[in-house]
Amino acid sequence: MRVVAAMSGGxxxxxxxxxxxxxxxxxxxxxxxxxxxxxxxxxxxxGCCTIEDAGDARRVADRxxxxxxxxxxxxxxxxxxxxxxxxxxxxxxxxxxxxRCNEKIxxxxxxxxxxxxxxxxxxxxxxxxxxxxxxxxxxxxxxxEAKDQxxxxxxxxxDQLARAFFPLGDTTKPDIRAEAAERGFYVASKPDSHDIxxxxxGDTRGxxxxxxxxxxxxxxxxxxxxxxxxxxxxxxxxxxxxxGLGLDRSSLDGEPRYVTAVDAxxxxxxxxxxxxxxxxxxxxxxxxxxxxxxxxxxxxxxQLRAHGSETGALAQVDGDRLQVRLDERVRGVAPGQSVVLxxxxxxxxxxxxxxxxxx
Length: 359
Known about the structure:
The protein is α/β, with parallel strands linked by helices. It has three domains: 2-125 and 167-189, Rossmann fold, CATH 3.40.50.620; 222-276, no CATH class; 279-357, Beta Barrel (Elongation Factor Tu (Ef-tu), domain 3), CATH 2.40.30.10. The protein has seven helices and 17 strands. Strands 12-15-14-13-16-17 form a six-stranded antiparallel beta barrel. A five-stranded parallel β-sheet has the order 3-2-1-4-7, with helices on both faces. Helix 1 packs parallel to helix 2 (51-64). It is globular and about 65 Å long.
């Protein structure tokens, strides 16, 4: 099988490419250039897409003896991921750019280009497993629970899964690093990237302010209805946030306050006590199924964050909408986040939360 191995320049994608080659596939390494102006230095463990990353990927490809190319997808990434990210925050929602990147770039633009060039599949260094099931290939959680990335792959459909390989899903991260060292890969001890790749310094609010400008508004206390502060942009807040509110605590009752709602239309950020954060009823759209869509109310596990725990739930599809009733209240759930549904370790599918409340 002719396979494109997506090589970020990190240890995971390096070992994934090596394993695909050893499995007997014809492998070509491809590094995705996603930044219009690639940085020349990685800032610790943050960010990616530096010139050094491309060089690291090329060195691994050379060691494996496979062809290597850099594909420029900066325009696609700018449009589908970065602009979407800004628009979602401006609308008062909290997006997950990693899911959007997997959906629109790594398993749409990349796979489409690979197929157009005569390749059969794409392999990545994601920690997840693909299992042959009765209805086709199934996406499952990785063996290494701490590194499991099935949540951010929950946007993949059956056709994309049929042409995807995740060679690391049955191995723990320490063992991957050890394998990379044994293979003589320079990247064996390279730090993992964290947070949002296109915001290298981790200052999301500052990055958004540069693009949206200051949009001042009120901070309102949910209990009293009083205006207790001002902000420079509602887009800089997300439900569940406690730090960075800039409040004069003397005007409150001493109880900690959290963001409970963001209204982009009125530029109002509402804060409240912790007891107001818990929700157990979700409405969602943008449904993506990794296999057949569930029929009728079904018992599932629901995960609401990339590194969050799973909560038992009852899910029901109604046309292009999904309703999820959680068994227990979960704090800090915001519109724009994704809910990924599981049946055991199998990923059923995902949807984007539009409303979160109490049933």
